[in-house]
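Example protein
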Amino acid sequence: MDDLWVVLPHLGAGGAQKVGLLAAEHFAAQGFQVRVLSLRPEHPVKHRLPDNVSMLDMDPDPKSLHPWLRDVENRSWQARGRRFTVAQLIKVRRFIVRLVTVVLLRGIQLALPWVDDRLQPGRGGLANALLSCCMESVGGLRYARLRDLLVEQQPGRVLALLSKTNILCCAAAWDLPIHLVVSERNDPRRQSMDRFWRWLRCVYYRRADVVTANTEGVLESLQEMGDWQRLELLPNPLPAGVLHEDAEPVHGAEQEILAVARLVPQKGLDLLLRAFAELDPSLREGWRVTLVGDGPERERLHRLAADLAIGDSVVFEGFRSDPFRFMQRASIFALPSRFEGMPNALLEAMAAGLPAVVSDASPGPLEMVRDGVNGLVVPTENHLAFAGALQQLIDDGGMRDRLGDAAREKLRSLDWSVVEPHWRSVLALPAL
């Protein structure tokens, strides 16, 4: 039996993926049997699987598939047509089942308000049966495969990360004797999740032995949502070695403003480009903005940089699995996000001794960055204020060093040597 499974939506770019793999790597190095499960193995992989950590096979059992869907080697037009037809019929069936189930569940909720009390792990009854049917239709083959793996292999502990992955894990482990920990990475009040999934979260999180949050703000939000078995703050750990003496940064090695993030609207990178363009040309001469990350906003940001006449000063590095080397050479870290949980990039930048400029829309970062102490805080959606903060740091190298040193000292509290006992307690891992 494995000691720990780490369940992720995929191994693409993202802070949750990084945290999950950091935990897998650390505890595998401690001698535990750790495996990683990606619910979407077909998603482009951006993260390397740590040493001594194996990947679980999420491919469905061929026996569970329709005979026509098993015949994937046959590339004739006739076989392709059969597979396409069956796939569409399955989608229609799944939609109908989900629709009927949702209507029934919502009807029960309205007619019998006490039904929520009967939706408890280990209890039978009509409500639980309907809920199980609903998850089979909503989760599809991923849920079915996850359930089969948990039943067959019965791991000692499961750590799930991100809301929908958490829900699927709670549903699959509903009546199984597994220590289940779910990790909520963003403030539920700000998530764009439909009402049905929000209701499923409130119901299924009852199964979790521990519900965790990575920031005080997320913890507060979860407290308002329900009465969980155990609710804990579980801080993001730092990658091993980033605070060691040989990882000391070279302050101001490059005249570079660095942002490490997915290129999506949430991250507010358009605000960073507008802020940089507001700087006096003589002030920004010799400086550049480096964006490390990828995403659907890349082309729009390219065009925006060109429109602002700063295209020659903006470097798009794409996704990098080793952003810390960029942080060691940069002078300023920028986080103009419109909302955030607790971004690992910020923590790593602070550990590298970088002064950060962050927006005040992000409850997580504000728990780490104090304005004028170990970074600068500006109003969200205000690129002029962001430009002013950048100007202060560009003008004053002494201020950059002072804030960067304070940021690095602050991050010592997230080294594995400090957070490991709490992680072990939450995961119920024994001492070796």
